[in-house]
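On clarity, I found the account of how folds are encoded harder to follow than it need be. An entry of this sort, consisting of the sequence and the corresponding backbone structure tokens, reads as follows:
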Amino acid sequence: MEEKKQEEQLDPQEEQQQQEEQLQADAQTQEEETVKETAAPKDEKEKLAQELAEMKDKYLRIYAEFDNFRKRNAREKLQLIQTAAADTIKSLLPVLDDFDRAVKAGQELDDGIMLIYEKMKKALVQKGLEEMESTGQAFDPDFHEALTKVPAPTEELKGKVIDTVEKGYILNEKIIRYAKVVVGQ
């Protein structure tokens, strides 16, 4: 019995020691769970922050792409508007040439016809039509179409336009008809 008493006496001490060990183990387990819980939200927060950054980047790229599309579309519309009348103006150029030839030939033109000629010329200029200056200029294949080459009367006229057979025209900074010229050799 004495042994039992000793065992009973040891039991409370062992029991207390076991309880302390159990408390330490529980504390350690609880600490590990807390670390896991705080680690998981950090990983999740980082993941969400990364997704947010990716979405912002996508948004900015799409916005920039749309803005470029809008600007390109506006530019194309403006070009279309500027050159929309090009076909009509091209069809009027032979009439303008006939008027110019009549004036150049010194024919007596009625004041009414001269008024119509001036009005037509003014209206076309307002729409963006410009005459090319060719005679006396250096020959430029970007603006001139050489019909023939003739010997230059002077050394200065070599490689230059001696005569303009048909005027060239520019509509809103775009060539709609090249000048047909005679070039000196």
Notes: The chain has a mean pLDDT of 84. The chain has two domains: 18-83, 84-184. The chain has three helices and six strands. The radius of gyration is 47 Å.
